[in-house]
Specification:
Elements lengths: L2 E3 L1 H10 L6 H12 L3 E4 H10 L1 H7 L6 E2 L3 H13 L14 H11 L2 E3 L11 H8 L3 E2 L1 H7 L5
Parallel strand pairs: 1-2, 1-4, 2-3, 4-5
């Protein structure tokens, strides 16, 4: 199975499960990135770069799992934008990778992994995944299914 990881997963890992105390978790994610089982849109990498240099450097070790926005991915982003205009926050001044995470999953027939939850404004990845019939899970569910146990 292939997974499309959202920025929220990496941020959660960095701040809730630091590498020094959770080596096995980070090794599982590293192994899946090395084997391209986890894919990351270039837009997620850009978001991470804007938040934390150390996480950006770590993710930079896996360049073949960082996926550029191809014509096919961009086409899917446009379709999602047109179907779910509420996903676009006209007040926002920061770059959002959410649509690219979903589009990447569509193009690569992948499962989305995100820490977002469906919320009232419906600007959440799980909401769009549910509507588009794309499987979406959180980090803990992903880890359990990948055989991680403490």
């Amino acid at each position: 199975m292939t997974y499309s990881f959202d920025t929220s997963v990496f941020i959660e890992m960095k701040f809730k499960y630091p590498k020094e105390k959770n080596k096995k978790l980070w090794q599982i994610i590293s192994d899946r990135l090395k084997t391209h089982k986890i894919l990351v849109s270039k837009e997620v990498k850009i978001e991470i770069h804007q938040i934390t240099d150390s996480l950006d450097s770590w993710l930079g070790q896996f360049p073949r799992s960082i996926i550029d926005s191809t014509t096919e991915i961009q086409r899917e982003v446009t379709k999602i934008e047109n179907r779910y205009t509420e996903m676009i926050d006209p007040q926002s001044t920061h770059h959002s990778a959410d649509l690219y995470v979903i589009a990447l999953a569509k193009v690569f027939n992948a499962i989305v992994v995100s820490q977002e939850k469906i919320k009232g404004a419906r600007r959440a990845i799980p909401y769009i995944c549910q509507k588009e019939q794309i499987e979406c899970k959180d980090l803990v569910t992903f880890l359990v299914e990948e055989g991680f146990n403490t």
